[in-house]
Fold these 4 entries.
Entry 1:
Amino acid sequence: MRLLKLVPDVTNLPFLKYRNLGFALAIALTLSAIALVALRGLNFGVDFAGGLMIEARFEEPVAVDRLRTEVNALGAGQGNLQTFGDPRTVAIRLPLPPGDDEAVQRTVTDVQKKLRAAYPGVEFRRVETVSGKVSGELVRQAALAVLFAMIGISLYIWFRFEWQFGVGALLALVHDVAVTLGLFSLFQWEFNLPIIAAVLTIVGYSLNDTIVVYDRIRENLRKYRKMDMIPLLDLSLNETLSRTIVTSLTMIIALATLVLFGGEVLFGFAIAMLIGVFVGTFSSIYIGAPILLWLGVGPHSFVPAEATGTKAERVIP
């Protein structure tokens, strides 16, 4: 029985032919994502925004504007309402009432009682509370976690290969994280602590894919010392293409299943990971590899000269 091959052994796609277009697209996506986050902001969950969140599921779809007016009339503060997964489920965010835990519980009980009276059959799935001080600390810690992860990974690539590779890896990671955050800002998906876990996982996935490509590039730099850099980079990308496609495809299938059938709790994490797989694969090819060419990487720049005849040479015109 012949094994199924998603990528034929003789694949020779000219990735670097479109390097300028790919890199320009990456820059445009990154800048657009940063602008979206700066202007529109992220839809922070209770983890980061602080306050009180009540998830309510109604028997029939409700008009969010009407429900917002009714919630604001309860005297618990200005509510921020958003459908959560489907038109029947609404996340109601309210400011924390002054006082202790008993005051919070009284507010929750009062809101639930009045909503039950207005909407018989409503179901309250969860209630979360986070103080403003705790939410602020979580925002800072999450931002530092992502920043230190990206810097640490770039330093590792620098020492593992050369500084040019570290620059390429850092730019690829910035692109992956920025595009993911930009899409969360565009669609106003809830941004909470599980999304930070997804972003850190995206950083690790992108690094893994980039290192596989970089390792093959370094190996080919030593093996084919007279080959021009563009054919060598194309050769390296094609040699790792099968592994990249198989890895990405298996993750896409698993994550798409979670997005469709995992429910509201897993949706944010799964959609962030799904976006990260796509942008991470793209950045490994059209940021990680071309940047080496523009930074002047070649066999002459950092690979020690080998004795003549110890390695077979291959020249591709």
Entry 2:
Amino acid sequence: MAQKAERYLLSRFAWLGCLALTAIAITSLTSGHFMIAAASLLGAAVIWTSPALPRRLPQRPWDMLNGLLTVALTLLVTASIWLDTEALRGWLFVVPLLVLGLLPPRRSVLLVVLFLAIIMPTLGSLYGDPTRHQIISPLLLTAGLALIFFFLREYKARQLAPLRRTDELTQAASREYLSADLHKEIQRSEREGTDMSIIMLGLDAHLSEPGQDADLHALLPRIGRFLHSQLRDFDSYYRVADLQFLIILPGVPTRGASTRAEQLRKGLMTLMSSHGLTLSVSAGVAGLNIGDDAHSLQQSAASALQSAQKKGGDRIQSYSTWSHITSEQATTGDPLR
């Protein structure tokens, strides 16, 4: 809950920052201060594309755009020294705070160091400018305090990392632990000579009505509790995407996993229909084969799920056979052992 509250506050501050910077940009444009308006718009764009705001699309393109916008803002603020823009020099103190607060750790520290390495010699070269001494010391102090708060935040995050194994919304295990846990289960299966399978469950949201999105996300906690109640004590499940879950079934062959996936599929559809949601569920099943590792096994299940959804959803697809398993076929399969 603490992590959820922390992200909630960060996103709210990010929204307020975007609105405030946009308002400054509009005011500066009307008063003819175009450099300040450009810096404000770039600052709002940096916040908008940062991880502080939740995204439905993959984060990687946003990260690249965020880095480019941050570099552009840094260059613009640095150029204010040569352009003799007094009002924009105050933004020099904002750059370290913005970079360290919103960007990933390694990238943010590197950018701040490069920023200071460029700014300090430039400020020192402004002979005859009485304001340069009023900027250098406060800027170094601001950057130093920002770095201290940054390291304290990272230290806190690492200390609390072992306590954050589960997703707060669905109580599923965090995706960060999936590869390591799956690797351990693969090693155990190979050592003991037993079967192992995984199931990738996905809600067919692309086939649903547009108005159901909010209701569906509100139902995620119940979906998580349902999966928890239906699995064995030594099974584990992970939330790998917004509407996708991966389940590890030790000691279960592919056909038995297909049977289990069909049972879970029916149960989830019953749960959603009881809340007025007409949404289908698909699943991809992959069994452990010789030469498989954690990555290849996940890719097999993901490919099977993608194939099932491309065929219209509402079905179970096994990666090993690529055959469509109907409800009647799955219920007559081999039971779990």
Entry 3:
Amino acid sequence: MLVVAALSLKGGVGKTTVALGLAGAAQQHGVPALVVDLDPQANATIALDVGPTAATVADVLDDPRPSVVRRAIAPSGWGEGLDVLVGAEQSERHNHPDPSGTQLTRLRRALERLEATDEDLAGPYRLVIIDCPPSLGQLTRSALAAADRAVLVTDPTMFAVSGVQRAFDAVQAERARGNPELQPLGVLINRVRPRNTEHAFRIDELRELFGPLVFTGVLPDRSAVQQAQGACLPIQRWDTPGAREISAVFTGLLGRLLRSARRAELAAPPPTH
């Protein structure tokens, strides 16, 4: 089970759009996936068209037992193969600026128990996608403590470089603190207008500073994104040229994630008996 965090420390760059696009790509390509909505705004939960649940991610962070996790997971309205650990405004109570080590590991423990349990859950999942809030409090750090990979999301604006740098530093800090498996998968640039000279300048700036960490494929600024989200549908099922262009980027991102996981499996030492 590969856990990826969609991360941005600058609001309004489309972090949830990336989490949803990756979830839609996983469903399209038959990869069983779970979306964990850690953002107290719970926009991913709304867009994924989830029904009522007896618990939410806030309850899981209170008590990460498998029974609580089960009550907080619901199938997405998008169809089979995609479930949601539902978000809620109440998760803000867990967003302490200086959390303890025990608080930071609750999400990781919940996901580990979800993977290990033999009870009748909708999984097993090959991919877990965590939609983080746009701040570096307990919630985002909990995601990084649980994740194997982080996708750093930005837009091509004046503040993009500082936002990506802070996100990259947060990943490196969490690696040093207690999750050495965590790696930045790359920087994904969203809402790009191809003929905008300011956007071109900022993209060049990002590539100069972060090199191959910046994905070659960028997400263009298309109204199809808002239209699909408003209809509670994956972008992969929104049949317009703009939607198809965006879907291709998410297919590439999914492939990169799965190849990364496969390389990690091959590099791992064999189990001892």
Entry 4:
Amino acid sequence: MDQLDIARWQFGVTTVYHFIFVPITIGLSLLTAILQTAYVRTGNDVYRRAARFWGKLFLINFALGVATGIVQEFQFGMAWSDYSRYVGDIFGAPLAIEGLLAFFLESTFLGLWIFGWDRLPQRVHLATIWAAAIGTILSAYFILAANSWMQHPVGYRINPSTHRAELTDFPAVLTNSTTLGAFPHVVLAAFMTGAALMIAVAAWHLARGRNTDVMRPSLKLAAWVLLGSAVGVVISGDAQAKIMTEQQPMKMAAAEALYDTVAPASFSLFTIGSLNGDDEVFSIRVPRLLSYLATGSWNGRVEGVNDVQRDSEAAFGPGDYRPNVPITYWSFRLMIGLGLLAAGVAAALLLLLGRPGRRLRRRRSGGDAVPRWLWRVAVWSLPAVILANSFGWIFTEMGRQPWVVYGALKTADGVSPTVSAGTIATSLAVFTLLYGVLAVIEVGLMVKYAKAGPEPAVEPSEDRPMAFAY
């Protein structure tokens, strides 16, 4: 591999690893705030214990997310200096706001929430967790604004003397149609991820008959959030697909491995053999579905890879403007399939737990109970949603290639010219090793506190701050 390939691997590994923590943080912050709100409104101690328990897992995940996110900032200047020089005037603005406003908002109020148990008035303390949750969502918006500018650059001009992109309309960057389409999709997927973690941990406890007073309402809340968010993800994903078709027709064509323009276009759920149709062995297709996803019409015309390639050469000059079609095709389907699988698990849990008289575990004498296999499947819904998020971002970024800023700057032109392949390879090895260690720490802490369960029920007067709050 050359310098460019290693730099791409380095940033790809960092991004996918970091984004494991981001959606869990966003999702758990909201769920913790909801549970604490229920406690303040009802005075039911179960909700207080639930909020404190899930808050611990949220804090562990937040800390690891911060540690891995900082590395990405350095990579822009180290491995991608030409990219940073070209777009830094624009790309850096939303990232600066994210760091100075959103991150400090969530960090400050999160600190107040940790140390504020029994020290702040109840409603003021509740406001701190909501402020932290809002901060995580604002962080997501500004970061997505920066990423969306790479997908669809707006509000800028090219300085003819410096050959750099310069910001001319910052509101246009923040209200980019790509941002407005991606934000609800990504945030709702994050809510799904936080809910999936809550379902997995609660299912583990309920399958063993432990902490049922806290875990049963937690599981029901998480199942409703996951199912509702999944519906929102489908709706926002449909809108996003139409924006993507208009702005990046090559990505939509690659998502279906559609090489020739057709109308109407079918959508293949699963294909065995060559994706270009030369040696196709077996394929399950839904007639006209791709036309609707791309254009909003069941008879819509969808451009193929070959035609978009020809148009790109006419617009940008000779070159190969096709992404890696197999990766784009399969990551798109894995994103959708794994997300729908987790939503199905949430629906099954709500259906079974909502039946009158339904018990959590089967007694020796028999009777109506939740099947044990469903608890096992519920635990595995967490990695399913995490992988769905990862495949979604792999599709988004790989499908844009060979552009780092679509239509303006190629990925090959953004890499640092003076940093050798050996230097980047060394940093890639170090990052991979470091992230492996952090993964062991993260999983160890999460499993330890998840298995420990919530604190024992106590009288309100005996309430104590979180064990690690001092």
